Amino acid sequence: MVTAVDLSLSTADEEFRAEARAWLAAHVPRTPLPSLETAEGFAAHRAWEAELAADRWSVVSWPERYGGRDSGLLRWLVFEEEYWAAGAPGRVGQNGISLLAPTLFAYGTEEQRARVLPPMATGETVWAQAWSEPEAGSDLAALASRAARTDGGWLLTGQKTWSSRAAFADRAFGLFRSDPAAPRPHQGLTYLMFGLTAPGVTVRPIGRLDGRPAFAEVFLDEVFVPDEDVIGEPGQGWRIAMSTAGDERGLTLRSPGRFLAAAARLRELWRAQGSPGHARARVADALTAARAYQLFAYAAVSRLLEGARLGPESSMNKLFWSELDLALHETALDLLGPEGELADGAWAEGYVFALAGPVYAGTNEIQRDIVAERLLGLPKGRR
Amino acid sequence: MRFLLDAGQRAFAGSLHALLTAADTPAVARDWARGDHARGRALWSRIAGAGVFGLAVAEEYGGAGPHPVELAAAFVELGRHAVPGPLAETAGAAVLLAGSASAGRFLPGLAAGTELATVAAPGGWAVDGDAASVRLRPGPEGLYLSTAPPGPVRRSLDPARRLTRLAPAGELLCADAPYDRALVWTRLATAAQALGVGLALLDRTVDHVRRRTQFGVPVGSFQAVKHRLADAKTALEFARPLVFGAAVSQCPAQVAAAKLAAGEAAYTTARTALHLHGAIGYTAEYDLSLWLTKARALRSAWGTPEECRDLVLAQGL
Lengths: 383, 317
What we know:
The complex is a heterodimer.
Chain A: H1 11-27, H2 39-54, H3 73-85, H4 94-107, H5 110-122, E1 127-130, E2 146-150, E3 153-164, E4 171-177, E5 189-195, E6 201-206, E7 215-226, E8 230-231, H6 237-252, H7 256-272, H8 277-305, H9 313-336, H10 348-356, H11 364-375
Parallel strand pairs in A: 1-4
Antiparallel strand pairs in A: 2-3, 3-7, 4-5, 5-8, 6-7
Chain B: H1 7-21, H2 25-33, H3 38-49, H4 68-80, H5 87-97, H6 103-112, E1 117-119, E2 126-127, E3 134-139, E4 142-145, E5 154-155, E6 162-164, E7 171-174, H7 179-211, E8 213-214, E9 217-218, H8 223-249, H9 252-277, H10 288-300, H11 305-315
Parallel strand pairs in B: 1-3
Antiparallel strand pairs in B: 2-6, 3-4, 4-7, 5-6, 8-9
Helix pairs in contact in B: 1-4, 2-3, 4-7, 4-8, 5-6, 5-7, 7-8, 7-9, 7-10, 8-9, 9-10, 9-11
């Protein structure tokens, strides 16, 4: 028997890592940017996206013609490890890059990709997601916003909410009910892209727990969307969106590098505070979980490279990272003692952000249902 | 980078799984717990014949090793089937003796399954000292072969682990043995075994809640039940890459992380399994008890959670 399991990187992969590390060392802002969830911070983060894109670091795994490096997923993981280890800013383009772009690669037309992806890669167009509605949260298929057929396109009417980044973003994507007569709620939905400044759109920012407008309500009143901004076939939106959700919960929304860097910083904080016993186990568990998440991702990438697809196991991913992120930040605040109460402390915004993790991108209860029903084969029951 | 077992490795684990499935391992474990080792020894020979112990033994001594990844895959199966005996200890003993003048004396028997080895944990118990013919004990002047009979058997929470104190006197085998390297192998094997125990507990519990009906429906259709099982599944599936990653690196901190995660995942799964089986799970007679009790015992074998956390914190991952 020969051991074929191999965690080493090729020389070319290591060169890629070194190139990324050198670029980041030269470019990552010395002082943290203002919060992404403010007008000033949003603009600064948008400029950072352009700086990344200028040297083709914003979307390394994409084809070169859209601004990427065709690096493959493994090098994307490597880049992310370097990116977060370098203390680089959060990604304002995240929603578009990790949710909409995979959908366009799978279901979009070449015309759509050529039109939408390059300005997404540079931060020129920042995207918000528009899934939830006041009466459609976990039960997303209950959504009621309408897309009515009109000459050359669709008229969107209704209300979206909890729309991340929408307070400052340029465009949004989401699901709309295009066939109210369809026999089942999952049918008759269409996946559309629309402008947040288009006539008929009203965006009302919502302050998240710390008051910053991290998301918004979006009111739509006969907003015209041309046919070219429908992704896939009208009526097929549910299937298309669920494939996006798989990517979101799976690999691309929260890369392992993010948690490896945070866990390493947590260990430094613990040592700087005199290695207190009360946090010892939680720091060790955060380090262990971050490494587990990294190796789980390596295994997932290995499967993808052999032609597999990310299936319901991405629900385990989402459960794992969202709980890790929260536990890690809670431990950091505990280690900071009375200083941990400060709203502008080094870990405070990350903590507030982590609090939302178990709720967004499909609540963790929904993920547990998926794991139980689709991975373990348990019977469906009442939610 | 390719972090997946290849077809040959999967086939190896699959054939071991088939062998153990056909071997009525619960009955073997119950015999073993009573001190009746006959069927256990017969099974041990077949496991050795499949090449399991040889994975820790070099070719010149009748093995095929070192192959830590395959060893981890094999120990997942041994745990999944609740195989009794000093399994991780025999693998660890092979590593302890590998560089010594005694290698040729002991290693061929360990690889072939004619000799069972146990190792006293520092200051602690030696599992199955009554069954093992090679009883190793680190001492002040080096590694000893304990030649006198071990002390009386004490019952473990896992009845299939028979705990003994090794007699202090004996034959000095070598002045210095690779204790750290042996601990890596023993701990890795124990982590893999714990992962297998957890996977078996999950499978059996999923099977139970699909069949058991209350209020006119399978209890597995209730969210309170599903969510505990989803958490167990998630914990086990994230421990798995740590176990195989540690097998690849053989770095002490990575192995400690694997032991920590696998031990905790298996124990959490045991608690879930006990609870979701209801009262039947709380009986010794029902076979689930074989895995429930082993999950608890393996949690502290060859590295308690706290010892493992110390290594993780000291070295980082």
